[in-house]
Amino acid sequence: MKTKRNRYRPDRARQKALVLAWIKGIIVVPAGIAGVLLFSAALAHSYRAVVELPWLNVEDIEITGLKRLQRDQVLQQAGVSQPLSVLQVRTASLARRLETHPWIQSALVRIDPPRRVVIELQEREPMALVHSQGFFLLDTHGKLFLETKPEHHLELPLFTGFVGTKAGLGDILSADTLEALRALLTALDHYKTWLPLKDLSEIRWQEGDGVTLYTTRGAIPVHLGNDQFAEKLKRLQSVQKIIAERQWWDMVQAIDLDYPRQAYVKGIVTQPNGI
To answer: How buried is residue 57: exposed, middle or buried, by Cβ count under 10 Å (0-12/13-18/19+)?
Structure first.
């Protein structure tokens, strides 16, 4: 019997090609990676060299819109200091960083060629102090933007009655509430020579029931309701004049003006139908 021969013939040329390809991969891939790294390093070095060119340094940083904040506070918040290359100024990023400051409502950063940076700020305007889960400054857009202490802002009216709402830092009052408070403050400003804010210990707001003023003299509550504040304050002026002339202040317990063309004074029994 004849012995069968192994018909498998190894393809030596193909094997050789595979070995060469494997060796080339071992050499070429690391060389390519090294080349990319060297190229990246060269680019980074070139960028640093360009950034450090003195003729690209920012000559001036102009800040507009400052009212309460100081220039140094703004620069610290932005995280910039000179010398600074114009190539390092990221305007959108700087603006976002500035707007995280509680007193800054909006910020715009731009480069004024060739080497000037302009920062345009709009600071928040506090309109009142609100007592809720703490004491917060209320801006003209209805946002509670900063927790503070009442003694630091004696020039502002104090609104109470918000504890039940659980309003806190960063919250925004409802549009109806904000509109009513704005209207009240406008009316109070009109009568500020007769009824300055220092004569009011607090202004209580209650949803649905409206505004009640508390005077510093005797803590007398004066209920105004939700609207027509200017007309009601004018009526209050007349009522207080009568009370002063008749020396009834010690008898007055409360004044309710939330009626058309009438005022009811609690505690004065001689006027059961109101004044």
So the answer is: middle
